[in-house]
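Why should sequence recovery work at all? Because a backbone constrains its sequence more than one might expect. Tight turns favour small or flexible residues, buried strands favour hydrophobic ones, and helices have their own preferences. The token representation captures these environments compactly. In the example below, the structure is given first.
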């Protein structure tokens, strides 16, 4: 299979990995043949990339960080909890919903089980979901990314649980904001910006009133928009005054947001997002945490379509964990745009004159 932009999909091509709705249920399953109506519908839903079946890459299977079953159950739990907290009393932090903490400790525990089975801890997040599902899938992705960093930091089981619950529910305060505001395709007004910025404290107040959610987990909601140099919100704290769990969630939040399609911009490639994070070190984020985070990101996941400096187009067929910036590329098109008669591979780690110039 290979990953392609929706603009490159042609009628008759078949889905190789399922696409999901906002609640985690399957929108289009493996083997569905795409036609003009399906393609247009996917575009309208905000799905900008898909995996398709391809005879030249049928042996390539991108290894997602977690299983589809795990993701779907996690998204369903996040969706159910967030939408269930939308009543006025809960938003004001006056109500406790039974066993939220216990539910999400179990959800995160399953995520951790999936992560523990991976041979190489390089995160690949497919983000194959509708635009309406962004908030819920985003929360699960942030939990996956945070979990990887928690493992790398050597956190014990209790620490990982607090981090995981906080990461899964860090954006719960967004449910107090009308969807048309946080999905707005254009600049926010001052009033709208103030409403959005209140979501951090709203989320904190919701979580700190849950009897089985720790205060450390709640601080992931409160502090995930604080910045290392003190120019964040809601309190403008800086440096070590920001809890490490919240710093980890903040980095994961920005990375996944950048690499996800939004109404107001195209998605960044993983390499572009990592470049942004490094440029933000010791300004937005602790540079040591950024370095640790970036060591565990799959910059060019298997099955990604890329263009080389030679003009050739190919698909990532293998990743070297010791040189993630220079994977092996299976060439499908020559520089003049012609399809190759028999695809061949170039190991960029062994041939330094070749470079990836962009992800297609």
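From this structural description, the recovered sequence reads:
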């Amino acid at each position: 299979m290979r990953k392609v932009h929706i603009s490159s999909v042609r009628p008759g091509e078949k889905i190789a990995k399922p696409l999901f709705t906002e609640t985690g249920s399957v929108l289009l399953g493996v083997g569905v043949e795409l036609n003009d109506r399906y393609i247009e519908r996917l575009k309208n839903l905000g799905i900008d990339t898909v995996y398709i079946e391809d005879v030249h890459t049928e042996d390539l299977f991108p290894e997602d960080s977690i299983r589809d079953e795990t993701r779907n159950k996690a998204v369903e739990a996040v969706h159910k909890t967030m939408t269930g907290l939308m009543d006025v009393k809960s938003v004001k932090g006056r109500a406790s919903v039974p066993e939220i903490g216990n539910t999400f400790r179990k959800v995160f525990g399953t995520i951790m089980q999936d992560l523990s089975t991976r041979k190489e801890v390089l995160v690949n997040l497919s983000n194959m979901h509708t635009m309406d599902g962004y908030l819920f899938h985003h929360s699960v992705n942030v939990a996956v990314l945070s979990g990887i960093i928690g493992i790398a930091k050597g956190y014990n089981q209790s620490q990982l649980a607090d981090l995981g619950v906080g990461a899964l529910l860090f954006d719960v305060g967004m449910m107090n904001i009308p969807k048309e505001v946080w999905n707005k395709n254009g600049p926010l007004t001052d009033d709208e910006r103030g409403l959005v910025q209140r979501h951090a404290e709203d989320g904190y107040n919701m979580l700190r009133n849950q009897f089985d959610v720790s205060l450390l987990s709640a601080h992931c909601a409160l502090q995930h928009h604080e910045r290392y140099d003190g120019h964040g919100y809601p309190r403008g704290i800086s440096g070590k005054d920001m809890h490490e769990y919240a710093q980890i969630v903040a980095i994961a939040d920005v990375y996944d947001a950048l690499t996800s399609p939004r109404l107001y911009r195209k998605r960044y490639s993983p390499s572009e997002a990592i470049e942004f994070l490094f440029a933000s070190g010791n300004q937005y984020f602790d540079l040591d945490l950024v370095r640790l985070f970036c060591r565990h990101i799959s910059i060019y996941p298997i099955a990604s379509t890329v263009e080389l400096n030679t003009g050739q187009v190919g698909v990532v067929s293998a990743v070297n964990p010791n040189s993630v910036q220079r994977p092996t590329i299976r060439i499908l098109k020559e520089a003049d745009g012609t399809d190759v008669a028999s695809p061949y591979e170039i190991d960029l780690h062994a041939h330094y004159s070749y470079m990836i110039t962009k992800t297609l």
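A few observations help interpret the result. Confidence is low (pLDDT under 50) at residues 88-94.
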